[in-house]
Design brief:
Layout lengths: L1 E3 L4 E4 L8 E10 L2 E2 L5 E5 L2 E6 L9 E11 L2 E12 L6 H5 L12 H19 L6 E8 L5 E3 L5 E9 L2 E3 L4 E4 L3 E4 L9 E8 L6 H19 L8 E4 L2 E4 L14 H10 L8
Helix pairs in contact: 2-3, 3-4
């Protein structure tokens, strides 16, 4: 689940088996620290809506853990989910609504659009090896006995938090070197010691062509699901629009099976940084 930095936004739990009732308790943590005050909640059908505020929860790029405890049929039920605070989206919900046939909110409700978009964004970034919007990442490594570690994330822009063998270190003692290295300026990472590094990373915004193709692919995916179309197709026509597919094969550089999108993803793909 992704929300934009500086936004006040409602996020929804997964559906419960029955309508949840009071009391509903919520805790939001970032890097193990509970953010206060706790967010407001409301019951929305068979889900709980949690309101994250700009002042308390989304002021910075971050990775939030949201724990919701609700009462369902007199039994406490706990849901835990992650919310990534990012700099922007590839395509806004309003932008998706302007795509042909997606204006119908009863057929394509906001949570469906958001979930589909977030899934595409995460998949594109995993395949390309780079976040195309400002993002927050948490990495786990093992010390190598040297002062430099290679990060998984390409294009780190800031080091937010470093924990070495259970000890929280001052981030000012570390610097970014090149496209994916972090250097401990006055010490070294003890051999085999657990290392946790929190970084801000990613580009300012995705390439225009990539944004357009992702929006088109999200639309095609939503229309196909709405029409209950088969998933293994070479081509299909939905509401007058024909889409051609290849056979999806991640290892053969065909991650989605969409000819145009796969070509773009391969053009924008970057080498993996590798583990340190």
């Amino acid at each position: 689940m992704r929300v934009v930095k500086g936004a006040t936004v409602q996020v929804l739990t997964d559906p419960y088996d029955a309508t949840p009732s009071a009391p509903v308790a919520v805790a939001v943590t970032a890097a193990g620290t509970t953010l206060s005050p706790a967010p407001a909640t409301s019951v929305s059908g068979d889900r709980v809506a949690v309101t994250l505020t700009a002042a308390t929860h989304t002021a910075n790029l971050d990775r939030l853990t949201v724990t919701v405890t609700a009462t369902v049929a007199t039994v406490p039920s706990v849901q835990v989910f992650t919310v990534d605070v990012v700099g922007s989206h590839y395509v806004t919900r309003a932008g998706l609504r302007t795509e042909a046939n997606l204006a119908d909110e009863s057929r394509y409700p906001d949570p469906l659009l958001d979930d589909t978009r977030d899934a595409f964004e995460e998949y594109v970034e995993e395949y390309c090896g780079v976040a195309w919007v400002p993002s927050y990442g948490v990495e786990h490594h093992v010390g190598n006995g040297r002062s430099v570690l290679a990060l998984d994330h390409v294009e780190p822009t800031a080091i937010r938090r470093v924990v070495v063998d259970g000890v929280v270190e001052n981030p000012a003692r570390f610097q970014i070197v090149g496209r994916h290295l972090v250097e401990w300026l006055d010490s070294s990472f003890d051999l085999d010691a657990p290392v946790e590094i929190h970084v801000e990373h990613g580009e300012t915004r995705p390439p225009t062509r990539l944004r357009a193709l992702v929006a088109r692919e999200i639309r095609a995916d939503l229309l196909s699901r709405s029409a209950n179309a088969p998933t293994q197709l070479l081509s299909e026509t939905v509401e007058g629009v024909t889409v051609r597919y290849s056979t999806p094969d991640y290892l053969a550089n065909r991650p989605t099976g969409s000819l145009q999108l796969d070509a773009a993803l391969n053009a924008y793909r970057r080498p993996r940084a590798g583990l340190g």
